[in-house]
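ingest -> validate -> predict -> emit
validate: passed (alphabet ok, no gaps, 525 aa)
predict: started
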Amino acid sequence: MRTTEGQIGAPQDETLAVARNVSTRYLAIAAEMAIGILVLPFNVAHLGTAAYGLWMLTTSITAYFSVLDLGYSGALVKFVAQYRARRDPRALNEILSTTFYLFTAFGIIAYLVAVVVALFLGRLFHLSPEQIHLGRIVLLIVSVNVAAGMAFTVFGGVINGFQRYDVNNIVGTISAVVAAIVNVLVLISGYGLVELVAATTAVRLLTYWVYRANAYRVFPGLRIQWKLSSLARLREMTGFSMYMALITWANKLNYSVDALVIGAFMDISAVAVWAVGQRLAETTQRMTNQLNDVLFPTVVDNDTARRHGRLQRIFLVGTRLSLATVLSIGGSLILMAKRLVHAWVGAEFDGSAVVVQLLTLSVIARVGGATAGTVLKGAGRHRLVAFANIVTAIANLVLSIALVRRLGLEGVAIGTVVPVAALATFVLFPAGCRRVRLTVWRGFVEAVWPAVWPAALMAIYVAATHVFIPDSLVAVGAEMISAVVVYAIAFLLGISHDERRFYVSKLAQMGGRLRPRAAAVSEGA
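emit:
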């Protein structure tokens, strides 16, 4: 019989685990960004603005289907981390078996909902008869991926709860590269939108099986069996998941409602212009919020063990690093938005620039308050986060509808920025400070201000140099990178010597652990 350590794995260095997860995730994001920069203009050129906009519209619809999991995906990560911390493999397998069959049912329901939406697509949006027919086919194909993804959610929960995000990061990168190659080959071969979506969906479905294999690798004692599923475990998870559901629904409104509002009140070409701006803003968020994504199981672990000092440090360091990352990258994007959009996709999409700038402001607010939200969710204040996000989402929807007729795309973006900024500034950050036993002033001085002031130097640098930059994507990208470097130098000089030394020591430890692994692989080859 296996020991508990053999089933669950030995404890790991918390800081190194976070560093490993974040660093490998950034490698994956860098690859995905490069793919996106190359593939998006290629897709628009081969599909046309209308077809590309239709694709983005159907994708926005399916983004809502994940709310059907009723928050159990968020609860799954919490309880996996919690029972792993307690070294209880039996409870872990009961949680995982229960959620596997639950998520399979959710996937079936999601696809049935997609069928109903497809039938009424022409009544929901301003589409021509040909676009309605094409949109239905694309929606039903994309929904296969969504439904299958729900069934496989349990394996992602194992990876996340065990703080081993890095295991799947490489797989995700390879999958993205393969999907991009398939994308290009399909369009070059003369096929259209339906064939493109079918081919890329097939790649993603195959990737789910690799994720499943990785889950068994991370948790060798994993057992998915009907006899291990339990109503008692379901009830245990439901007390937390109901609030995660509220947060998920609110986030879907905040992230995805804008494209639907534009589709309902404007034409399909406006959706395409919005999508370009939204893509850049979302990429910025993905690049800058990876730390907070991987901190959740760490927060749960420390809250379970009642390590209040560590929670306080997670809050301060996490907020400071998150703000530094998003202000450097997001700030350079705001400053160079017009030049970047024009160089990337051409004058036809110049209207996307203001969308980029406004949505990036909302990203800065979201990421800046994300560590506070993560601490609150993982340390017993999830109810506050849930209700605050619901109010924010409703405000976003109301403002977007009220402003779209008067201001167009700019009005929709403003309707997003205002409530999101208010949530982060006046709700999440103060509540996070209280939860880790800090005053708001100390939180501002130690976590916010060190990340804010270097942005002024970056803005001065761009104002002085941008006029010398030619209108090419490479030149604009180089200017943005230079601006980020200016910010990084100012930030690193501004933090304490002890903090810089701590970061360097952990990076050295991580590198020292990776080298023996690489040598072992080489010897094994």
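DSSP finds 23 helices and no strands in the chain.
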